[in-house]
TrEMBL record:
Signal peptide: none annotated. It comes from Salinisphaera aquimarina. The keyword Nucleotide-binding does not apply. Keywords: Membrane, Transmembrane, Transmembrane helix. Residues 48-155 form the VTT domain. This is YqaA family protein.
Length: 191
């Protein structure tokens, strides 16, 4: 099932309406869909390098808008979603996200933009724990925006070689960035 979804996303990246599909994919991924928008953003940025920043902006806006939906889902429907999260194997990730909110608040959402834990888990958890909405949106803009602009920029500058490596190592890159941000926060707080 996921292989077909992935193949569909890559084909959609070449379509004239691909920017709309990118927005829809970023929106859906932030609240309920399993495929991250990077798999569409990277081929689009590669195909039209001069539009890479525009595509990153589209992915960011779509992701933040979808994150708002995820927040509402978590705030209003969490009890009915818990069995679904368990069935799909997201419950452990949800518990991790909830723990991050307890310890890091705003920073948890910012880090979620880079984390290999599905972003939808964080958006739903933010609504479930009633994180203040404005900080949630601001952290989403910064975290998701940074991720998509980094992806678009690297693909734009380094081309097809980077796209292949990005898709192969995206989880490792995500965890490395999370670790760097955590160390930076710790150093900043110790000062």
């Amino acid at each position: 099932m996921f292989a077909r979804l992935y193949a569909w996303v890559v084909r959609a990246a070449k379509h004239p309406r691909a920017p709309w599909a990118l927005f829809a994919l970023a929106f859906a991924e932030s609240s309920f869909f399993p495929i991250p928008p990077d798999v569409m953003l990277a081929p689009m940025a590669l195909a039209e390098r001069r539009k890479a920043w525009r595509f990153a902006l589209i992915a960011t806006v779509g992701s933040v808008a979808g994150g708002m939906l995820g927040y509402v889902i978590g705030a209003l429907f969490l009890d009915s979603l818990l069995p679904w999260l368990k069935d799909l194997g997201y419950y452990h990730s949800y518990e991790t996200a909830r723990d991050w909110f307890a310890h890091y608040g705003f920073w948890a959402v910012l880090l979620a933009g880079f984390s290999p834990i599905p972003y939808k888990v964080f958006t739903i958890a933010a609504g479930a724990v009633a994180m203040p909405f404005l900080p949630f949106v601001l952290a989403s803009l910064v975290g998701r925006g940074a991720r998509f602009f980094i992806v678009a920029g690297l693909v734009r500058w380094f081309g097809p070689v980077f796209e292949q490596r990005l898709l192969k190592y995206i989880d490792w890159i995500g965890w490395a960035i999370v670790a760097i941000v955590i160390v930076a926060i710790a150093v900043f707080q110790l000062r």
